[in-house]
Amino acid sequence: MKVALIDSGLGLLSTAGWLRHLAPELDLLLLMDPDGAPWGSQSTPFITDRLFSAARSALKQDADAIVVPCNTATVTAIDVLRGEFEPGVPVIGTVPAVKPAAAAGRSIAVWATVRTTESSYQARLIADFANGKPVEQIACPGLAEAIDHGDVDAASKAIDDAASRTPSHCDAVVLGCTHYPLVAPEILRRLRAGATLYDSAEAVARQTLRRLPQPVVSDGTVGGVDVMLSGRAGDLPASAHAYPVGRSLATGGRISREALLAERTETPALGVRLPQRTETA
Questions:
Q1: Which residues contact 250 (CB under 8 A, 6 or more apart)?
Q2: Per residue in 149-170, pLDDT tens?
């Protein structure tokens, strides 16, 4: 079976890495959009059009499921994407791990892009799943873009800025952008001692496996990893090699759990599906 993952840039790496770790037999199709990146600054019609184009390309290549490991794209167009392709092909969005962070009884901060921080989607997520706990919303301008470019200095400055605006009482930090787990060790170094990061990539991967039309059979093989760049066949960009999971996916081998986890990073095993207008999570 084949799973397609769609994002404008490197935000898909962590979820792809977890899928590779949990079900190495799967074929992975990574659909990136360097011509349109970053999506965070683009209009709703632009993002929706790029998502639909990538999804149609995935189906032409016999994808059995479509994953959108991007909070901006999930905020913007997951409902219309599901309306078009489900129930024939499952469409899995990405939800920041607010619920498990709140369940742990923590004081919470949510780090996200400016667009996601300002969205009604994130406000609804917090209202529904924070259990009344106070939540600090920390916009992180430029961090996702720096990660996409493999720009260590720019990422470090953006992390310093976000950490300086994160109150010291917040000992749980939810990573509300799928790019941020790639620099989780750097984020942890800037936060107060004992802080824990919450990332949803593993939960999204497990939800994807649950929603496949049939169980993945473990037969000892390792599936392929194909990359599309704005509709063209290609390779993972050089910036992906700045991160362990990117290097592992580029070589096409198995991926260890250690390559996916930073110290004190929680990856809840049970995912929360994005609430739609007709359902509750």
A1: 225, 235, 236, 240, 241
A2: 999 999 999 999 999 999 999 9
pLDDT tens figures, 12-42: 999 999 999 999 999 999 999 999 988 877 8
The residues carrying an active-site annotation are 70, 177
Same domain (yes/no): 102, 184 = yes
Number of domains in the chain: 2
CA–CA distance, 202 with 261 (Å, rounded to integer): 10
Whether 184 is in a domain gets the answer yes
pTM of the model: 0.89
Question: Within this chain, do residues 65 and 55 fall inside the same structural domain, yes or no?
Answer: yes
Domain that holds residue 235: 2-94+202-257
Whether 125 and 185 map to the same domain: the answer is: yes
What confidence tier does 259 reach under pLDDT thresholds 50, 70, 90?
Answer: confident
